Predict the structure.
Amino acid sequence: MIRSGLVDTHCHLNMDVFQEDLDQVIENARQAGVRKILIPGLDISSSQRAIQLSRQFVEVYVAVGVHPHSASDWNDGTAEQLRNLAENPKVVAIGEIGLDFYRNLSPAPIQIQCFRDQLSIARELQLPVVVHNREAISEVFDILFQWQATLDEAHAKRPGVLHAFSAGEEDAWLAVNHDFYLGIAGPITFKKAEELRTLVYNLPIERLLIETDSPFLTPAPYRGKRNEPAYVEQIAHKMASIREQDPELVARTLRINAETLFDWSNGNVDSHLF
């Protein structure tokens, strides 16, 4: 176990698949050394559920947002609900938002408008964003960089994270050079993920975050099982192996990165964790 602690910056414990054994899943995470967990919303109801969980479990923090799959439900009323939810002190980001042109469960123009509107809310509330991209990286970047140019200096330096990053090297460097973080998830442990492992070796670790995306993207050696936050330890060890660094040092840097982006200690860094 990584003794000094881990974080999971993206997992969907607000999904029904965790309803029957959530207490045990949280306890497993604690036993694995996971100290903080970020749960993103996929729509208004799942964002509300994430906030409920943040009241129940001290380590849980929240991003509220409408996923591109649900963009067709977006309207002025949804936007107002999102603003109200974001007033909760444990809400540290707007997300999971973005574009998904692979499944296209909502029409592309509606996805784009929903994405832009939520970015505007993030600007208004001075919150970073948790961004979903699938087969839409050029459009995502165009929208994000236009938005980032309207932010004040401090916000522009911590704009958000591209979650479960899966694009190529050129796109990775473009994101990093615009001060975005890249979320690294279970695929880094997959046999055919050499390109991703090369990226993790070459990119500045100060721009990487660690996540499980539970219940999806289960890392080796647990592939085929439901993913959960405890398995973030496998991702941390794999990153340390790739970078040829001490796992404790890598975990510490990843925790600091998450703290910098999400400010989920409200500026009061817990010294025994960091």
The mean pLDDT is 95. The beta strands are 6-8, 34-40, 60-64, 91-100, 129-134, 160-162, 181-184, 208-210. Residues 108-125 form the longest helix (18 residues). DSSP finds ten helices and eight strands in the chain.
